[in-house]
C-alpha cells in the first residue's frame, strides 16, 4: 500500500470537509500520543508559543487574500475582452 492511500482516513475526510472540531479530535486520537514534545525544535524554537508565533509571522508574510484581487480579475477580463492582437506580427 502506498503512503497516500494509507493516510486517507477519517482525519483526511474531516479536513477535506472543513470539519475542524472532528479533525482535531481524530488527529489527536491517532497521532497525539505519539509525539515526544520534549525534543521538538522548529526554526530554533522549542516552546509551543514561540513556534506558533514563528508560523504566524511566516504565513502573514506570504498570505494573499484572493478576495482582494477581484479588481485585478475584472481588469484582466476587460483587457482580454478588448484584446485584438497584433495582426502585423511575423513569426
Structure description:
There is one protein chain. This protein is mainly alpha-helical. It has one domain (about 5-80). Helices cover about 55% and strands about 0% of the residues. The protein contains five helices and no strands. Helix 2 runs antiparallel to helix 3.
Give the topology, please.
Blueprint: H1 3-6, H2 10-16, H3 20-31, H4 48-62, H5 70-81
Tell me the Rg in angstroms: 23 Å
Mean pLDDT equals 78
Low-pLDDT parts are none
Order of helices and strands: HHHHH
- How would a textbook summarize the main sheet? none
- Helical content class: 40-55%
> How many domains would you count in the coordinates?
1
- What coarse outline follows from CA principal-axis ratios? elongated
Q: Structural class of the helices, strands and pairings?
A: mainly alpha
Strand content: under 5%
Query: What count of helical segments does DSSP give?
Result: 5
**How many strand units?**
0
End-to-end CA span? 51 Å
By oligomeric state, this entry counts as single chain
